[in-house]
Amino acid sequence: MASFFDIRARKDAAASAGASKAGGKQENARIQPWVEKYRPKTLSDVTAQDHAISVLKRTLQSSNLPHMLFYGPPGTGKTSTILALAKELYGPELFHTRVLELNASDERGISIVREKVKDFARQHLSNPPAGPAGIEYRKKYPVPPFKIIILDEADSMTQDAQSALRRTMETYSKITRFCLVCNYVTRIIDPLASRCSKFRFKGLDKANAGKRLEEIAQLEKVELEDGAVDALVRCSDGDLRKAITFLQSSARLVGALQTAGDGPDAMDIDVPRKAVTVRIVEEIAGVVSGDVIDRLLQAMQSKSKGRAFESVNTIVEDIAADGWSATQILQQLYDKLVFDETISDSCKNLIVMVFSESDKRLVDGADEHLTILDLTLRISDILQSNG
Amino acid sequence: MALLVDKHRPRSLDALTYHDELSERLRALAQNGDFPHLLVYGPSGGGKKTRVIATLKELYGPGVDKIKIDARVFQTTSNRKLEFNIVSSIYHLEITPSDVGNYDRVVIQDLLKEVAQTQQVDQSAKQKFKVVVINEADHLTRDAQAALRRTMEKYSPNMRLILLANSTSNIIAPIRSRTLLVRVAAPSEEEICQVLESVGAAEKLKHVDALNKRIAQESGRNLRRALLMFEAVYAQNENINANTLIPPPDWEALIAQIADEIIQEHTPAKILQIREKMYDLLSHCIPASTIIKTLAFKLVPKISVNLKSEVIKWSAFYDHRIRMGSKVIFHLEAFVAKVMRMLERQA
């Protein structure tokens, strides 16, 4: 029983058990998205959520768990954390019978909460295999006496479905723990939120995200140009999943272009292996080139009103035809204007109002061309009347 | 007799005429065997669909050309039956979930899961996965997009998605972070001219350089529109020369007329007359947001500098109202009245 609490010994044992299986999966792993491939396997692998992880590790040792509510922006490791925790608790054999994972791609109306969730919550606990194998198993994994129901993307559950959970959570709390995962904690009704201990997952900071990306790049043997990591982190604002997807896509592009370019013109390339450049990353992330934004800004700041309209109009027309995403333009213009020292604060107030309105319109699905034109013209007006 | 647009649509990546770098990239992705989920976006008439079809062909070979259309029936939770058309080959499926309006989530969940859970039957197929092409992905409801999230991750060994959209604004961030974004810009005017020239040569039509240039200009960098205009011009006129009139579409002519009327007279009686024209446009299925946008851009060159940005401001405002509201004619008329009022005040 002493080794029950010895988490390291158990982990080592688990790792050696996992390694023997890995061989057969190699073929599959090649085409796996890196996001899945490098999903943290254990709690300690989760990047940069020290607070939540340390609390969870303690619960792992005491093998008691409260109901949990994970919230935070996308790509910060919420789902990864709970899956890693569940794996550490139950190990591969009991994982399927002890954990129920439901997400927005499953039907999750009130009827499902009443039937599927309740049925699972009500079930008896499955036990590790009997005999000496079971004792061995228990040495590796704590196997606490409860099941876990993971409700991923819980903020897209209806109010009714959420309220149907309330009593279920309490009635079966002896043998079942719930873990709600969501982006916006405000969309979870209060009675549910108050039954859970909350864990906030913060957006990843530059250093941590960069470190993880470099690790992955090294494992996948992707060459990164100087500044490419910065570009990845910048384009993904704290969303590690996005950053990893970008990394994989750019690696694919670079690798693929290389094999395709082995023809007669391959001689032109001096570098033996092409590296992922900042430009490729930005292209993949859909970032509008700085040149376009600068031209737009310049046009907006022109002094005469008639000229401003003409030049802004043509540039916006080009932007619309080039298919740049309006939200992206909005974001980049915002970053430029708000941090521009030459614009007075009162002016910025007015400008931010315009941004807010335009953003709402875009989200509602208004015409992009008109909205961007309106936005730029209004900002141009504000700049002229105050400048 | 097919339209020129369909007849001369490039069928393979080699035949694509512009955005060579992009085509090269798509080919590289297709040959690599490690094909990601794609989100292809860009203005209409820029060649998104053509590129996607060509990419599919690169992936699977000529098998994707043999398509059939299935009508499937889905049942919603409230037992309503929905009929839904699926275009499919043995390697891929093409759906337009916005056809079923608010029930698109049901279709997405049922259909994608079904596809995802079956493996490729054809053992000799080049790829192990099937591709699902989703048209008009920006019209998917939030629910449907949320339903896509996990499906995309979970079933990625058996299925890849290609989403087609006009803009990424309406696509939720989690989807954007799971896909490789591919931007297809509209062709430039020179590129349109080249296409027109090659199509004209293939059809043995008389080549008039100046006319092609004018068509390219009029089309607003929309290749489909340019080709349709090109065909219309050649169908209507016997003798083609540089000054042959390019007939604008009826609806555009009508909107131009409305713009003129707004500028000439600012009275309630005029609004009443304009209302009739508006109803005429609406009954011919011209979308209200197209009307308001075209009207604004027709008005702008005809009014004084000070009012231009005002007109754009209000057109954007009422365009948003149209999106949110349910009765479009109110907002169209309100816009007309607003512009008249502005002109009146200035005079």
UniProtKB/TrEMBL annotation, chain A:
One of its GO terms (biological process) is DNA strand elongation involved in DNA replication. InterPro entries: AAA+_ATPase, ATPase_AAA_core, DNA_pol3_clamp-load_cplx_C, DNA_Rep/Repair_Clamp_Loader, P-loop_NTPase, Rep_factorC_C, RFC_lid. Residues 64-205 form the AAA+ ATPase domain. Pfam families: AAA, RCF1-5-like_lid, Rep_fac_C. GO terms for cellular component: DNA replication factor C complex; Elg1 RFC-like complex; nucleus. It is found in: Nucleus. GO terms for molecular function: ATP binding; ATP hydrolysis activity; DNA binding; DNA clamp loader activity. Keywords: ATP-binding, DNA replication, Hydrolase, Nucleotide-binding, Nucleus. PANTHER family: REPLICATION FACTOR C / DNA POLYMERASE III GAMMA-TAU SUBUNIT, REPLICATION FACTOR C SUBUNIT 4. Belongs to the activator 1 small subunits family. This is Replication factor C subunit 2.
TrEMBL record, chain B:
Transmembrane segments: none annotated. SUPFAM superfamilies: P-loop containing nucleoside triphosphate hydrolases (SSF52540), post-AAA+ oligomerization domain-like (SSF48019). It is found in: Nucleus. It comes from the Eukaryota. One of its GO terms (biological process) is DNA strand elongation involved in DNA replication. GO terms for molecular function: DNA binding; DNA clamp loader activity. Keywords: DNA replication, Nucleus. InterPro entries: DNA_pol3_clamp-load_cplx_C (IPR008921), DNA_Rep/Repair_Clamp_Loader (IPR050238), P-loop_NTPase (IPR027417). GO terms for cellular component: Ctf18 RFC-like complex; DNA replication factor C complex; Elg1 RFC-like complex; Rad17 RFC-like complex. Belongs to the activator 1 small subunits family. This is Replication factor C subunit 5. It comes from Trichodelitschia bisporula.
